[in-house]
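User: Can you help me understand a structure? I only have the sequence.
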Amino acid sequence: MAERAALRLPTQAELQLRAHFERAGLQIEGVCGDLSSLGEHWRQTAALLEDLTPAEADTLGALMPTVRARAGQALITQGEVGEWMLLLLEGTVDVVKRSEDTGESSRLAVVKEGASIGEMSMLDSAPRYASCIAIEDVRAGVLTREAIAHLIQDHPAIGAKILVKLTQLLAQRLRNTSNRLVKVLQHQEPDYTPD
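Assistant: Let's start by predicting it. Here is the structure, written out as tokens:
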């Protein structure tokens, strides 16, 4: 138990997260804690956790504050910079991209419990690409860049597993996006024939 207390986010980081989520009207409720208590099926559903042992998942969970959102609330807002990502523990989220030209929003995805969102901005500090709106009440674990740095320093095996998994998740999303783009381009451009 003493080890768990040492794994908590530094107070300053907790205060910054709490202030951010309170401004957004979201509630912070302690930490995820024992992610292994969610069960083996759930761990297999959450790609971020699938390579972790139950003890490793609990170590990660001890570093992740829990946030709650009601249906219709934005968990992530397009254009904001964030040094954190979310692991959906309960609920469903609509991922929408607002066009800067027209102001219209397009649905990119609907994600459910077990999914992770917000990884790109957490890793590169760039503005959020899209907004993530709760379709129903949502509970999510917040993973910060600072928490990952803590894992790399104090639990390098867990930190490495998380970084590898994040890389795999982002590579898969890039692959899926590329495939969708190819399909769109095939329908818009006339067949190319060399001279």
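Now, to help you interpret it: Strands lie at 27-31, 65-69, 74-76, 84-90, 92-98, 105-112, 116-117, 131-134, 138-144. The longest helix spans residues 156-188. Let me know which part you'd like to focus on.
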